[in-house]
Amino acid sequence: MKDRDAKAEVSDEDPVRAAELASARATALAIAASALERKALNVVILDVAGKVDYADYVVVMSGRSDRQVAAIAKNVEQDVKEKLGVRCLSVEGLPQASWVLMDFGDVIAHVFHEDTRGYYDLESLWVDAPRVPVDDR
């Protein structure tokens, strides 16, 4: 609750920051929706605003195979650019596709192979970060 109150204060006092947070949230939700179109598993959006200085949201998802991980990442990159006009600034890990890291500025997306995700367990780093509901249909 404390994090939400702090965000409410920032939003009330700084309309530019509020707009940035709203844009980042829309990007995170678009990433999740695009990933789900490619049958991504266990899509989680973490609200890390104020917890880290490099992003406001982190989206974590899994694929069952290296091919599916690559397809998810490519679909996310293309869809977010087409639908929101937000370009992916950097993509790492596509050749091997066991863990693809995508940087959308205020949003970082991690596309893991199921086994790799379990090994690194990134969600445990932000166990206290609020989760944004994802419409997984």
**What percentage of the residues does DSSP assign to strands (E)?**
15-25%
**String of helices and strands:** HHEEHEEEHE
Record the strand order, biggest sheet. 3-4-5-2-1-6
CATH architecture: 2-Layer Sandwich
Note the overall shape.
globular
* Total domain modules: 1
Low-confidence stretches: 1-6
Notable characteristics:
alpha+beta; 6 strands; Beta Polymerase, domain 2; 45% helix; globular; 137 residues
Give a quick summary of the entry:
The protein is α+β, with helices and mostly antiparallel strands. The chain is built from four helices and six strands; from the N terminus they run ααββαβββαβ. A hairpin with a 3-residue loop joins strand 4 and strand 5.
SSE order and pairing:
Elements: H1 2-13, H2 15-37, E1 41-47, E2 57-63, H3 66-84, E3 90-92, E4 99-103, E5 107-113, H4 114-120, E6 131-132
Parallel strand pairs: 2-5
Antiparallel strand pairs: 1-2, 1-6, 3-4, 4-5
Helix pairs in contact: 1-2, 2-3
